[in-house]
Amino acid sequence: MDFLHTYETLKLEFPLVEPEEAAFTILGVPFDGTTSFKAGARFGPTLIRHATLNLESYILDYGVDIAELPIADIGDVAVVAGDPRKTADRVRETIEELKGANPKTIPILLGGEHSQTLGAVEALKPKSYVVFDAHLDLRDSYQDNQFNHACVARRISELGVREAMFGIRSGTREEVEYAEEKGIRWVHARNHSFNAFIEEVKALPEPVYLSIDIDVFDLSLVPSTGTPEAGGLRFWDVVGAIEWLVENKRIAGFDIMEVAGESLGDPTALTGAKLLFHFLGAVGR
Prior knowledge:
It is a single chain. This protein is of the alpha/beta class. It has a single domain, classed as Arginase, Chain A (3-Layer(aba) Sandwich), CATH 3.40.800. Helix content is 32%, strand content 19%. It has eight helices and eleven strands. The protein has helices at 44-51, 84-101, 117-124, 152-157, 173-182, 194-201, 235-248, 267-284, and strands spanning 6-7, 24-29, 58-59, 64-65, 71-77, 106-111, 128-132, 162-168, 185-188, 208-213, 251-257. The strands form two sheets. Strands 1-5-2-6-11-10-7-8-9 form a nine-stranded mixed β-sheet, sandwiched between helices. It has a two-stranded antiparallel ribbon with strand order 3-4. The model has no long low-confidence stretch (mean pLDDT 96).
């Protein structure tokens, strides 16, 4: 199947199926046009895919070999350099094309800065948005751009999507006030627990879009992300939350964003690749 805005790139090494037959479809978004601290998120999709070469496809936790799952990889979106809105439009249009051909597939974005999650949410129209992130991302505008990566949760909230945020440890007074006004629930990283997560998400309407900004993790796991923050979560904190969500909620889409770096084998990409495999395994079982 051909897509209007995508091109061929490095793909996962195990057997892949056509998008029309896939339970999961991977799409890279190599964009970092509004990155405000450390550049390199444009290399995220390639770095994550390459890092999967280091991993066994058999997931010990679940007894599932993800190489046996029906997975498609449709390459990367051809970004509009420096324009997050036009690039997000291309993400939206690509996912709309994909869902038109296969309504049952779960799109998986690999990125790339977090601004591009907006395009996926616009296409999939979930009822709820669950995000793991160091930052609230609820600014109305940042650096004179309402589609900056620091504004993505604000734009999604304006679509009428319920939001719950975890691992948060950075934000402005105005963002906190906006969250209170709109009833957006968030849990500070220092207060994160499995029970706190369930308490916030159990009543969320379905389907749910799940987004992982890689900077949610402790810096030792993700040294190359664009806006790193000390005091993050452990890998298994997030995996446990994913497991609960896929067992209890219908998942509309999933992404792993803000993976950056300049070298193959970067620890940030290795963390993202391992997380990708656990998501596939958790759903696949």
